Amino acid sequence: MRCEYDLKGNELYTVGWYKGDEQLLLYSPSKRPEDNVHKEHVSIEHSNAEQLTLLGHQDDMRANMELYQGTYTCEVTLERSFDTGYASANVSVAILPQKNPVLDGVQNHYQIGEYLDATCTSAPSLPPAELTFYLNNQEMPSRDKSQQPIGDATVSRLSLSMPLQRQHFPGGSMNLTCRATLPGVELDRDYRTTKLATLAANNQRLAQELPRMSSTSAGTSRCLVSWILAILGITAACATL
């Protein structure tokens, strides 16, 4: 971690590094590095007035999370005047997913009334991923959640089961998306997977049948009007649309 500041021509007295209320390092430029007060997990060789370096537990990411994540404060004090300024920042430790979530169980075509049974599985992460389903960009409530530890990380799973109705297929198709987020961690990309399904062909014909019948009825009425005009001695052509 780095602490940037402008002394405006003054001399530096100390820089204090804190995690929460715990002092990690009190750095004084007038002392030798090893004489500065510091915690055992502070790398004093790689820490100074502008940088704090912490030592972690090898191959134990969960222990590192407890050790590292939290709110850190850099407190700068000037020589003579002892004026003090500080700044704080939150630090998160995470194992990021290496790929988008896997979405299983989505068929290519569905009948009206058929069930959508989908399962979303995240890539291993720490903290465990939170999964959310979106049907046609609308968030869907889901209750069947599970988690499975894999090494230092965790795989999350979420299931969705629901009957599909005609309104779920605007334009004859629907899209189902599963999105993965890590609570408390700002990600530099969006982890999501989307699959498309269409309404089965016979359902689409049923949906189109009523408009075709209406069109035929209109054509019949126009034909009837034309024949009436012909009886009155007016030449007319009958065309059914």
From TrEMBL:
SUPFAM superfamilies: Immunoglobulin. InterPro entries: CD80_C2-set, Ig-like_dom, Ig-like_dom_sf, Ig-like_fold. Residues 1-92 form the Ig-like domain. Pfam families: C2-set_2. Keywords: Disulfide bond. This is Ig-like domain-containing protein. It comes from Nasonia vitripennis (Parasitic wasp).
